[in-house]
Amino acid sequence: MKTAIVILNWNGRAMLANYLPTVLSFSQDDAAVIVADNASTDGSPEFLASNYPQVRQIRLERNFGFAGGYNRALKEVDAEYYVLLNSDVEVTHHWLTPLVQFMDVHPDCAAVQPKLHAVAHREQFEYAGAAGGYLDRYGYPFCRGRLFDTIEDDNGQYDFVTEVHWVTGACMMVRASCFREAGGFDETFFAHQEEIDLCWRMRRHGYRLFCVPDSTVYHVGGGTLPQGNPLKTFLNFRNNLTMLWKNLPADERKKVMRMRWWLDYLAAFQTLLLNGNVKDFRAIFRARRAFRTARKDVSEDDRQRLPFVDIKKYAILWHYYVHGRRTYSEIEK
Fold first, then answer.
1. What separation in angstroms does the CA of 129 have from each of 9, 107, 117, 187?
2. Cα–Cα distance for residue pair 267/131, rounded to 1 Å
3. pLDDT at position 304, please?
4. CA dihedral angle for residue 182, residue 82, residue 186, residue 66, rounded to 10 degrees
């Protein structure tokens, strides 16, 4: 088959009930629809078997997280393009065609994403990917349409195809050969920022990534781990540091890690003193400790065998908090 939409599910029966019908209505003529289940205990597999017997299921023996779940499921899917789609995404009419067409005519493109809008505020971009992602000089991810907690309305300001540093795992079309060449997701991440790490590695292999705004989908977001969950804080900090350690060249890595030591602990004390959030404070400290352990398993030979690719030269924190620039457009000016 040419295109396979693979939805990774873990206890997401309610999301499947709400949003799988749109996927089937607007996609099944153009792609196979598959649900890979991370050992759900909420009756998701039984619900699918009873209500959507046409949907193929791949049932995993335990919860391998986003990274491990997709790595295992995609080994069982034979397609030219994989579409990794969260269970809480509402797709729209004709959403798939622009993505497939773009990939067809750009063989150097490893992955694309549509624009992501929020289900709750349909004219607004959604946090988890907006209109394509970037990394600043210290490894902080941000998007066209979203800087930290500032999320823009979509007024057509990003309605042009643009090369990006990373595409969101909430709705990512990835060329299967590129996914395999880059080694798939890093399973030590479990969940969060594993798609950014994969995108970085695919770029290091010489491929390009794009946002194709002719396609739009709507994302609930935070369906598995909502904002403010200390596990989410832990995973984001640990995985972000691990990704930098893996992908930055040695000379740049030393400078970035020195600055991140200060910035991470500043963030920890800010959450404690300004917000009174003890759980996130502890999560950041645990993430720093876990990173120190994780980095020992990164082979220097593996790290150096691929060339470094550019990230943004500026510091997003400086633009946002010191200069008060709240949109991507303001910064890029």
1. 19, 23, 9, 21
2. 26
3. 55
4. 170
Contact yes or no for 37/60 (Cβ under 8 A)? yes
- Per DSSP, the residues of 160-208 read S-EE-SB--TTEEEEEHHHHHHTTS--GGG-SSSHHHHHHHHHHHTT-E
Cα–chain center distance at 117: 15
Distance CA 143, CA 167 (A): 9
Specify the amino acid at residue 80.
E
Answer yes or no: are the C-beta atoms of 158 and 283 closer than 8 Å.
no
Strands 141-143 and 81-85: unpaired
- Per residue in 72-81, pLDDT (tens digit) is 999 999 999 9
Q: Are 58 and 76 in contact (CB under 8 A)?
A: yes
How many other β-carbons are positioned within 10 Å of the β-carbon of residue 183?
13
- Report CA 44 to chain centroid distance, whole Å: 23
Nearest to 191 by CA among 223, 162, 220, 218: 223
- Cα–Cα nearest to 331, from 146, 159, 139, 167: 146
CA dist list (Å): 134 to 111, 167, 197: 14, 9, 12
Cβ-Cβ contacts under 8 Å for 33 (sequence gap 6 or more): 5, 7, 20, 23, 24, 27, 54, 55, 56
Q: What are the tens digits of pLDDT across the range 121-145?
A: 999 999 999 999 999 999 999 999 9
- Say how far apart CA 294 and CA 189 lie, in whole Å: 10
For 143-176, how does the pLDDT look when each residue is reduced to its tens digit (9 = 90+)? 999 999 899 999 999 999 999 999 999 999 999 9
